[in-house]
C-alpha cells in the first residue's frame, strides 16, 4: 500500500514560572505498508514539517519577553512486527526505529535575549506490543478496544543551546522510558470511522 497525507497540529505550552507559548506544525508526507499472509508486516513513513513557534515568557525580575521563530523538520519511521489472531483477539509485537531533525535558527526576544541552537536531532528505537479485541455489534458497527505497552530508547544526548552567546546548555533526553496507551476504534460504516485514545509516558527526564 502506498499513500500520502497532510496535517496540522497546534500545541499550547505553559511555564511553571509564568508565561506561555504555542507551536503550530504543518506536515506533509508519504507512507508505504506491506503485509504477508502470515501476519508479518513492514511499514515506512517519511514526513516534512514546518513549525511556527511563539513564546510570551516572564522573567525572574517580573518583566515580559516575547518572540517567535520558524523552523523546518524532516522525519522518518520504519516499523516491523507480527500480527497474531485468535478469534476476536489480536496481539501485535513490534519493533520500530524513528529519526528526526529540525533546523533551529537564531531568534531574539523582545528584552534583547538571544538564543541559538544546533539542529535538533532525535533517534530512538521502540519495542512493544498491542493487544486488541474486535467486536461486531448487532447494528453492524465494529468496535475494537486496544491496549499498548512499549519501551523507547532515545540515543541522541547532545542537542545544544547557546543563550546570549554565553555557555552551552545541553538538552539531553537520552535514555529509556515506558509508554502506555489505551484506546478504542469504531467503524460506523464503510466510509465513516472514529478513534479515541489516551497515553502516558515516563522515564529519562520526560513525563507526559
From TrEMBL:
Pfam families: Autotransporter. Residues 1-208 form the Autotransporter domain. One of its GO terms (cellular component) is outer membrane. It comes from the Bacteria. InterPro entries: Autotransporte_beta (IPR005546), Autotransporte_beta_dom_sf (IPR036709), Autotransporter_adhesion (IPR051551), OM_autotransptr_brl_dom (IPR006315), Pertactin_virulence_factor (IPR003991). NCBIfam families: autotrans_barl (TIGR01414). This is Autotransporter outer membrane beta-barrel domain-containing protein.
Amino acid at each position: 500500500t502506498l499513500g500520502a497525507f497532510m496535517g496540522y497540529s497546534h500545541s499550547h505550552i505553559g511555564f511553571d514560572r509564568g508565561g506561555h507559548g504555542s507551536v503550530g506544525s504543518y506536515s506533509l508526507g508519504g507512507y508505504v505498508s506491506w503485509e504477508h499472509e502470515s501476519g508479518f508486516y513492514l511499514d515506512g513513513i517519511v514526513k516534512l514539517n514546518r513549525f511556527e513557534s511563539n513564546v510570551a515568557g516572564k522573567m525572574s525580575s517580573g518583566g515580559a519577553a516575547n518572540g517567535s521563530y520558524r523552523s523546518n523538520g524532516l522525519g522518518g519511521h520504519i516499523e516491523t512486527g507480527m500480527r497474531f489472531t485468535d478469534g476476536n483477539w489480536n496481539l501485535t509485537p513490534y519493533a520500530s526505529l524513528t529519526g528526526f531533525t529540525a533546523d533551529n535558527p537564531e531568534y531574539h526576544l523582545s528584552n534583547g535575549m538571544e538564543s541559538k541552537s544546533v539542529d535538533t536531532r532525535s533517534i530512538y528505537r521502540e519495542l512493544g506490543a498491542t493487544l486488541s479485541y474486535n467486536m461486531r455489534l448487532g447494528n453492524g458497527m465494529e468496535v475494537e478496544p486496544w491496549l499498548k505497552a512499549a519501551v523507547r530508547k532515545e540515543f541522541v544526548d547532545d542537542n545544544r543551546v547557546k543563550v546570549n552567546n554565553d555557555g552551552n546548555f545541553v538538552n539531553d533526553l537520552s535514555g529509556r522510558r515506558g509508554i502506555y496507551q489505551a484506546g478504542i476504534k469504531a467503524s460506523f460504516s464503510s466510509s465513516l470511522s472514529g478513534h479515541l485514545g489516551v497515553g502516558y509516558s515516563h522515564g529519562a527526564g520526560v513525563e507526559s
